[in-house]
Amino acid sequence: YIPGTIRKAQNLLKQYSQHGLDSKKVGSALTPTEGKEDTVDIEIDAYIHSISAFVKLAQSEYQLLGRIIPEHDQKKTFDSLIQEALESLMIGGENIVSAARKAIVRHDYSAVLTIFPILRHLKMMKPEFDKVLQGTAASTKNKIPGLITSMETTGAKALEDFADSIKNDPDKEYNMPKDGTVHELTSNAILFLQQLLDFQETAGAMLASQETSSSASSYSSEFSRRLLSTYICKVLGNLQLNLLSKSKVYEDLALSAIFLHNNYNYILKSLEKSELIQLVSVTQKTAERSYREHIEQQIQMYQRSWLKVTDYVSEKNLPVFQGAKLKDKERQMIKERFKGFNDGLEELCKIQKAWAIPDQEQRDKIRQAQKNIVQEAYGAFLQRYGNVPFTKNYEKYIKYRVEHVGEMIEKLFDTSA
């Protein structure tokens, strides 16, 4: 049993030293037909297994030594015997750190997440490492803590660089969704934060390890949780500022409002669907309410685009006509009101039909609110002037029934309608 365990452990470690994550043929020895993501996942699993395998190997080796080597030579002999296996483990770990650093340079922050499960496992296994390496040279004992520190530093840098990348993502017109839908930056940022949820303790510890006010051993899990909450709020704050800047690329203020609405709504729904909202509320209790207010503000901004339509039929802008018979000037004014409403309605429906609101609940809510506002104003106007003799050609000016107007608004944000 023991020789088999050792042989398996040695093979794993040897394989890892030859095929680290930094290799261009990453994982090829393990899964030549798998896709890139699957390959990396298998490589991570293999390295995690090799960490456990090293401990098993070292423990078995030490037990065997106890039987055949004099006690005063055991520590020195053990130190010498495990060097090759330990070196293989370190090379694998250093390759992973190196690949993560290159990923940071490429701004491929999801690739850096490979470090998180490995670091978590290393820290979990550290007491066993410390126990089995007791009595070895300082250089041997310090290797695993050194690798842990290296991974924590690299991970913390990735987190900080990611937050900066969200803040500084450029406002390019060609990169903006023409229909005002959720921006790729938003979905990527949320995806990255959601992936951190699986490694909350590890990510929090990474951030805590960079705090000058605390030594590696003195920070509490509550402290690191607060740091992670602060970090997530920072990313979300950077994202909001960038989205505001991006929204200014749109010339149409209503489309700008729809864009911000979609993105804020996507962020809020994503936070609520995951544990992110609980993490955010550790340091920002009012985050949920704040997003709801932002969403409502953008709906109101969008509704202003319809004022140029409803103003034509608004009661507050109508003069009081004197006498039973209309003057030419009064007839002309009614004609202009109907024409202005018709043209404005047709123009907005044509433009806004191509815009997107992916969330069906929000889409229905915005349509319904707009339908109510426009139908009410137009219905009152039509009731007041529909039977007034202001023209011989009623069909030219009274083009739409009230319910027809509602049907047109129902087709907003729907290219298939």
Q: Runs with pLDDT <50, length 5+? A: 19-34
Computed structural class: mainly alpha
Shape estimate: rod-shaped
Radius of gyration: 33 Å
Residues in helix, % = over 70%
Q: Beta-strand percentage?
A: under 5%
Average pLDDT, rounded to a whole number, is: 88
Number of helices: 18
- How far from one another are the termini? 70 Å
Q: What quaternary form is this?
A: single chain
Q: Tally the beta strands.
A: 0
Biggest sheet character: none
Order of helices and strands: HHHHHHHHHHHHHHHHHH
Give a structural overview:
By secondary structure, the protein is an all-alpha fold. It has 18 helices and no strands. It has helices at residues 2-18, 36-68, 71-105, 109-112, 115-132, 138-141, 143-168, 184-196, 200-209, 221-247, 253-273, 276-283, 287-303, 307-310, 328-352, 360-385, 394-397, 402-410. Helix 3 packs parallel to helix 7 and helix 7 (143-168) runs parallel beside helix 10 (221-247). The longest helix is centred in the N-terminal third of the chain and has 35 residues, at 71-105. The protein is rod-shaped and about 125 Å long. The N and C termini lie far apart (70 Å). 32% of the residues are buried.
Structure at a glance:
This protein has helices spanning about 1-20, 35-70, 70-105, 110, 115-130, 140, 145-170, 185-195, 200-210, 220-245, 255-275, 275-285, 285-305, 305-310, 330-350, 360-385, 395, 400-410. The protein has about 425 residues and is mainly alpha-helical.
Question: Which terms would index this structure?
Answer:
single chain, 417 residues, rod-shaped
